[in-house]
Amino acid sequence: MSILHLGQFDIAPIKVIFTIFVLFAWSRAFIKFRYKSMNAKEITFWTILWTSITLAIYIPGKTTLLANLLGMDRGFDAMVLIGMITLFYAVYRLYTKANENEQVITELVRQIALANTLKKKSRKKR
User: Fold this and answer.
1) FRET partner for 73 with CA separation of 20 to 30 A, picked from 12, 97, 114, 116?
2) C-alpha angle 72-45-81 in degrees, rounded to nearest 5
């Protein structure tokens, strides 16, 4: 494996690539927060998430502690399991939100159609 030697630190290239990605992703979240497209709770969530993942990449031994708490042997297995559970939950939330939005749109279309029908009927009576 190729290692970058930066002073006292030896860093694998994948860690550098991941760090650049994290900084890019977090900067997008911060820009949305700055332009009021994201609230403080959301930016806090993304900051904690990206910081935690970055720490897990740079200090992988600490993930073993988490794995042991979950009854697993390897930290990587725990991180994959947590990631999968989080993704399944995110998909579930998106699915339910999409259904809610579909119901709201359907109701709005019905109301608009009814209002247009009533307007046409009232014009014909004149």
Assistant:
1) 12
2) 20
Residue environment code for 90-123, b if the CB has 16+ CB neighbours within 10 A, otherwise e: eeeeeeeeeeeeeeeeeeeeeeeeeeeeeeeeee
Strand partners, 4: 11
Residue 69 belongs to some domain of the structure: no
DSSP state, residue 73: S
pTM: 0.66
34 falls within a domain: yes
Quote the domain boundaries for residue 115: 75-126
What mean pLDDT is reported for the chain?
88
| 53 shares its domain with 86 | no
67 within domain boundaries: no
How far apart CA 86 and CA 100 sit, in angstroms, is 21
